[in-house]
Amino acid sequence: MTAAPALTPTGRVLTWCLHLLLIALLTLAAARAVADGSPEAGTVVAAAVTCAVVYAVGPLLPRVRTSRRAALWWLVAVGVVWLVLLVLTADGVWVAFPLYFLQLHLLPRRQGLVAVIATALAAITAYAAHQGSFAPAAAIGPALGAAVAVAVVWGYQALYRESERRRNLIEELTATRADLAEAQHEAGVLAERERLAREIHDTLAQGLSSIQLLLRAAERTLPDTAGNAARYVEQARQAAADNLAEARRFVVALSPPALDDTTLADALARLCATTSSRHRVTARFHLDGDPVPLPTAHEVALLRIGQAALANTVRHAEASTADVTLSYRGEYVTLAVVDDGVGFDPDHSGFGLTAMRTRTEALDGTFTIESSPGHGTTVSARLPKECP
């Protein structure tokens, strides 16, 4: 049984209006019975009070507020007391209008409509019995009230669902924008780290290496009598060697943290193993072709796309297996993630896939999605091996 939507401030105002309307109609039925001097006035007043008490007790009981079954029994109790009132007085017909809203709010869509129709028929039948004859005009009030209640409640529920959908989209968009901003910042940091590492390796480290080689050659050519000179050359060579080792450690420290001490293929293989151990998905890694060094930005982008694609598989695909293939062919490197899940319509893809596409196209690559409901999903990102 589907849960009723949570009340918004507007919904709470409408609920209080419904409470007041039902109490007012019950009061009106009791007052009219007394004013008309009906012999059953006492019974009508008792039925109206009982109906009001049963109705008021429901929202005050915690179980009615939290349990759909308890709320259903409360609705049945209110309906039974109302039927008693309806048998006693024709004025009980008007209480049907707030009951329509109560039934549509507490019951699922189809059952709520059936309950409204049954309530309207009961009201029309009882009114005709009290009048001693049936007139089409007597059916207009309850029928029109039922139609208005259905239109209002279903319209409100449709607006609520649309509002929730938009709220979820806004939250997802906000999260995706934050991810993109973080990815762009990370890409900038990684690019600068790579540039510094390359500059240090190509200038400082190479220079120190050349100095060390020259000093070693000079040390070998010095005569044995030039002891002091040989000692100074040895000290200079040792200082160059120490600084060269320090520069190389600095270059290693500037390597991307996601790929420390490992290759892209090893990182993806470890990602598959971690996914398989933590989730009910068997993730397998495949390497196609001979790996070649890639620009840092390319390796980071492919690793992030693999992480995001496997995360989507775990969260949404309901898949049992996922195959991650890293392929080095021709001038391009391709990462493909294939699962055997429920699939989806690519025309209605979310922002996560859009972020993957943006990341790929920022490096002059191509991103493709192949999926259909019930036939799994293939996500593929292809990047050039060299920077454009």
Précis, in short:
Helix content is 69%, strand content 10%.
Write up this protein:
The chain is an alpha+beta fold. It is built from 11 helices and 5 strands; from the N terminus they run H-H-H-H-H-H-H-H-H-E-H-E-E-H-E-E. Strands 1-2-3-5-4 form a 5-stranded mixed β-sheet, with helices on one face. The chain is rod-shaped. It starts with 8 loop residues before the first helix and ends with a strand.
Largest sheet: 5 strands, mixed
* H/E element sequence: HHHHHHHHHEHEEHEE
What structural class do the secondary elements suggest? alpha+beta
Please give the alpha-carbon distance between the first and last residues.
Answer: 57 Å
Return residue spans where pLDDT drops below 50 for at least 5 consecutive residues.
Answer: 1-5
Q: Tell me, what's the shape? A: rod-shaped
Supply Rg. Answer: 38 Å
Give the strand line-up of the largest sheet: 1-2-3-5-4
Instruction: Tell me what portion of residues adopts beta-strand conformation.
Output: 5-15%
- Average pLDDT figure: 79
Please report the total strand number as a whole number: 5
Helicity range = 55-70%
Number of helices, counting only DSSP H or I runs of 4 residues or more: 11
